[in-house]
Amino acid sequence: MKNIICDIDGVLLHNNQLIPGSDKFIHRVLEQGNPLVVLTNYPVQTGKDLQNRLGAAGIKIPEECFYTSAMATADFLKHQTGNKAYVIGEGALTHELYKAGFTITDINPDFVIVGETRSYNWEMIHKAAKFVAEGARFIATNPDTHGPSHSPACGALCAPIERISGRLPFYVGKPSSWIIRSALNHIDGHSDNTIIIGDNMKTDILAGFQAGLETVLVTSGVSQLSDVELEPFRPNHIFPCAGDIDVV
């Protein structure tokens, strides 16, 4: 029985609309009893939020199956020294950090942690860059530069802090293999018995490849067949959409 790590956007949904067949695929996987992680780089929504989002599109998934870059960031930080963080992000990220025992503060933080937020401003950039330049460790939930309609994402929010401080963050989310290892630990799974399903060669498939997983690319999202030829690595399987996957 293989473990399955499955991306959301471009695999299960387009915006909030169901990609035809993805509901049947997920429901079949759950009925078979495959351990499932529905994984997203987006740190703004909680597991309950994501459960509601997919439920509204007709995909019924238990809340505990969802794993986000906010959860993985909290998991990463549990393995580090220090417990004070200056955070640029929304409630789902701070919630996970509080659960991990962190104090959220702008007084001598050990870490500067950046996620997605629409309330980004000059003061945040100033404080974050100052803390990082003075030695706070710079952690970001994911390297994505933009979302739908070119909305700024975490990587873009990190850019001015990087330029001012001269330091790069550690990105927890895909394509980092850290988030894959963290998701596997979440289900007590092992890489040699896990499939990752994604729509993006540069994030999902690269992360899976680097973590030693069997990889499935679906061409219902970002990457198309022509994009596969541009990379030095290859997915193990390619399908038009999740509904066509027949390897699990």
Automatic annotation (TrEMBL):
GO terms for molecular function: hydrolase activity. The keyword Hydrolase applies. InterPro entries: HAD-like_sf (IPR036412), HAD-SF_hydro_IIA (IPR006357), HAD_sf (IPR023214). This is HAD-IIA family hydrolase. The keyword Hydrolase applies. Keywords: Hydrolase. It comes from the Bacteria. The lineage of its organism: Bacteria, Pseudomonadati, Pseudomonadota, Gammaproteobacteria, Alteromonadales. Gene3D superfamilies: HAD superfamily/HAD-like.
